[in-house]
Amino acid sequence: MNLLVVGASYRTTPVATLEQLAVAPADQPAVLRLLLAKPYVDAAVVLSTCNRVEVYAAVSGFHGGLADICAVLAERTGSLPNQLADHLYVHYGQAAVEHAYRVAAGLDSMVVGEAQILGQLRDAYHAANEADATGRLLHELMQQALRVGKRAHAETGIDRAGQNVVSAALRIGGDLLPGGLTGRSVLVLGAGSMGALAVATLARSGVTTIQVVNRRDERAVRLAGTYGATAVPYARLSDALVGVDLVISATASAEPVLTRATVEQVLRHRPAGRDGPLVLLDLAVPRDVEPATAALPGVAVVDVDGLAGALTEAPAAADTAAVAEIVTTEVSAFLSWMRGADVAPTVAALRGRADDVVGAELRRLAQRRPDLTDAQRAEVAHTVHRVVQRLLHSPTVRVRQLAAEPGGDQYAALLRQLFDLDVPGTSGAAAIPDLDGAS
Question: At residue 429, does pLDDT exceed 60?
Fold first, then answer.
C-alpha cells in the first residue's frame, strides 16, 4: 500500500472548475464511499477549501489508484477524466508525504504561512475517521502532518504577519474604498469557520459596524454576540445590503447567494452619493456571488481568482527556508517509519511460520514417542522453541534496522522470497518511489 495525492488548486484550476470539484461537509461521507468502493483505493481523506480540493489516499497501485480517484472527481464535474487531467496535480509515495506536510505547514497556501489550513485539514481527517475511511497508513500521515504544521508555526516566524485569506481579502477590499476600511459598514454572509474568522478580523480593523447574516439565524446570533456585532435575519439580507460598504461572503451554498438580480435591486435602493463601490469579497467555493454581478456599475467583486492574482506579500525567506527544512527532516522520518511498518508483517509471518513448523514436529514426536511423560514433552517443546527464537532473533532485528534505511524494503521482500511467506498487502507495497508528476 502506498500514498497518493490527487488535487486541484487555485494555481492549476479555474475557479469555475474548483466550484464543480468542491465537496461540502455534508457531502463528504458520500464522496468517501465512492472512493472506497473503487478497487485500488484502500483509504481516503478529502480536503476541500476555498482554494483547493485534494484527495489523499492509500492505494494498492499508482496507475489504478490514479484512475479510480480521477473517475470520482470527473464525475463531480460532469466531464471525462482526460478532460479534467490538465487541471490536476499528482503526488505519489515520498512526494505525497512532502505535499501533505507542506500543505499543513502553510507553504502551499494562497496566503503563505496562514494557519487556517491546519483546522481545515483536521476537519477533513476527522470526517474521514467518522466514515471509517482512513486506515493505518493514512491515519499516521494525517496525524504527523498536523503535528508538522503545528511545529512549523511554533518554531518559525512563518505566520508572524498574522495573515490569512480573510485579512488578505480585506486589504484588497480596503484599497477599493476611498479612505480604506476605517468607519465603514461591513456585512459578513455565513457563520461557519471562514465567517467567524472574518468577524474576528473585522473586530480589530476599525470598521464602524459589523453585521452577520446566516441561513440559520441562531448561528448568526451566537457569532455576532461573541464580537459585539449585529445579527440580521436571513430574510432581511437584501435590506441589510443596502446600507453596507463591503460584504465578505463565505457560505457553503451550492448555488450563488448574491445573484446579479439581487445586487441590482440593492443598488437601486442604495443612497445616492455613496463613497465608493459596493465591494463584494467572495471567499466561497462554489462562489456565493454570481459571476455576472461583476459587470454591474458601482460594484467591485473579488473572488478566489482575483484574490490569488492580487497577493504579493510573503513571509521572510528565512522563515520559509526554516519551515522547508522542518518538512524535509520530517518526511525522512515518516519514510523510515513507513519502511519499518512494511517489514513488521513480514517478521510476524516468519515467526508464525516457525511456530507452525515447531508445532508440526512436536506432534510428530508425540506419535513416535508415546512413552514420554508430560514433563518431558514440555521440556522438549520449551527447548525447541528457545532454539528457533534464538536463531530468528538476530536476522529479524537486523532486517528491522535495515528496513529503516533507504532501499530497505528490499530486505523484507527478500525475506518473503527466501521463506515463501504470503504476507497480504505487501505485493509492490514496500517500495516508496520518488514519483511526483502531474497529469
Answer: no
- Which contacts qualify for 255-262: CB closer than 8 Å, 24 or more apart? 255/286, 256/286, 256/287, 256/288, 256/289, 256/290, 257/189, 257/288, 257/289, 258/189, 258/282, 258/288, 258/289, 258/290, 258/293, 259/290, 259/293, 260/290, 260/292, 260/293, 260/295, 260/296, 262/238
Average pLDDT for the chain: 86
Q: With 70 as the cut, is the pLDDT of residue 439 above it?
A: no
How far apart, in Å, are the Cα atoms of 76 and each of 20, 34, 171, 301?
Answer: 6, 11, 34, 26
| 50 catalytic per annotation | yes
Cα dihedral value 418, 421, 425, 428, nearest 10: 20
What cell does 79 get?
Answer: 466531464
pLDDT digits (tens, 9 = 90+) for 348-372: 888 888 888 888 999 999 899 989 8
Helix, strand, coil proportions of the chain in percent (round to 5)?
55, 15, 30
Alpha-carbon Rg for the chain in angstroms = 28
**Cis peptide leading into residue 271 (ω within 30°):** no
Residues 6+ apart with CB under 8 A from 146: 104, 118, 121, 122, 125
pLDDT over threshold 70, residue 258: yes
User: Of the residues 45, 50, 66, 247, which is catalytic?
Assistant: 50
Grid cell listed for 251: 457560505
Tell me which amino acid residue 278 is. L
Ordered structural domains, the chain, with CATH: 2-155 (3.30.460.30), 165-310 (3.40.50.720), 331-434 (no CATH)
Within 78-162, where are the H helices? Answer: 81-84, 94-105, 116-130, 135-155
What is the grid cell recorded at 133? 475511511
Tell me what the mean pLDDT of segment 336-340 comes to.
77
Three-state SS annotation for 296-318: CCCEEEECHHHHHHHCCCCCCHH
Nine-digit cell string for 266: 440593492
What is the sign of the dihedral through the CA atoms of 48, 53, 56 and 59?
Answer: positive
* Residue 399: partners with Cβ closer than 8 Å, 6 or more residues away: 343, 346, 347, 411, 412, 415
Give yes or no for residue 335 having a pLDDT over 90: no
